């Protein structure tokens, strides 16, 4: 005669055992999925926060360090410095070509008005032609212009640039203001410097220059 150990009942003794086991398996799968999601979110946090200045830097208006490695050609990223939005645009070769040929349409093509440090007083209004750094505030009434880099997007002669939806001011891909719009001067270039080929510090002057 076979004796059954009651401490380990068989499925025949408990018809609900399979259902209970199935519920346990589902619970473990859900728990594992949730924990995996939390881990993924934690892994992404440094990627996102690295684009943002620390709370201390924001509060004190301290210089802001920005890693440019993840900025693809043609893209724009916005960071905050001294409570202001600062745009960083990685210009493509085509965008740089688009800067030529429309000086006659600009109010201040040579950047004679002091809206930029001396090291950004050139056609590109930048240290490295590839990277444009601007304060993203319209020089008319302080609105936020929009990035409109595509040629002819705003008309047949549009070379690409920035458009302010508040009152229609337009700027080219170096932040230079066009004639016939409310904004009186070019967009401002903040002080900044490169500490290596792919990292800039906004709020510090380029070496050898002072404000």
Entry keywords:
Rieske Iron-sulfur Protein, disordered N terminus, 3-stranded antiparallel sheet, 9 strands, alpha+beta
Question: Strands, helices and their partners?
Answer:
Layout: H1 17-49, H2 55-60, E1 64-67, E2 76-81, E3 84-90, H3 93-98, E4 131-135, E5 146-148, E6 161-163, E7 170-172, E8 192-196, E9 199-202
Low-confidence stretches are 1-12, 27-50
Beta-strand content bin:
15-25%
The 3D shape can be described as globular
> How are the strands of the largest sheet arranged?
1-9-8
- Mean pLDDT, to the nearest integer, reads 81
What's the total number of strands? 9
Structural class: alpha+beta
Please give the CATH architecture of the largest domain. Answer: 3-layer Sandwich
Q: Give the SSE order as H and E letters.
A: HHEEEHEEEEEE
CATH superfamily of the largest domain, please? Rieske [2Fe-2S] iron-sulphur domain
- CATH topology value of the largest domain: Rieske Iron-sulfur Protein
Annotation field: number of helices? 3
Name the helicity range. 10-25%
CATH class of the largest domain: Mainly Beta
Radius of gyration from the alpha-carbon trace, in angstroms: 28 Å
Task: Tell me the major beta sheet.
Answer: 3 strands, antiparallel
Domains (count): 2
End-to-end separation in angstroms reads 99 Å
């Amino acid at each position: 005669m076979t004796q059954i150990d009651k401490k380990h009942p068989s499925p025949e003794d408990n018809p609900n055992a399979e259902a209970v086991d199935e519920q346990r398996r589902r619970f473990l799968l859900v728990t594992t999925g949730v924990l995996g999601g939390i881990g993924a979110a934690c892994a992404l946090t440094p990627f996102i926060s690295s684009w943002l200045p620390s709370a201390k830097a924001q509060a004190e208006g301290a210089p802001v360090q920005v890693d440019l490695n993840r900025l693809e050609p043609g893209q724009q990223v916005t960071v905050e410095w001294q409570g202001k939005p600062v745009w960083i645009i990685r210009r493509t070769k085509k965008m740089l070509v688009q800067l030529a040929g429309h000086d006659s349409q600009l109010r201040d093509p040579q950047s004679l008005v002091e809206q930029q440090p001396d090291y950004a007083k050139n056609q590109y209004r930048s240290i490295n032609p590839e990277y444009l750094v601007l304060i993203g505030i319209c020089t008319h009434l302080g609105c936020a212009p929009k990035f409109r880099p595509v040629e002819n997007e705003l008309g047949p002669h549009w070379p690409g640039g920035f458009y302010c939806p508040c009152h229609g001011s337009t700027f080219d891909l170096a932040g230079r203001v066009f004639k016939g719009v409310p904004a009186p001067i070019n967009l401002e270039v903040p002080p900044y410097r490169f500490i290596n080929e792919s990292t800039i510090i906004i709020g510090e002057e380029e070496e050898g220059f002072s404000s």
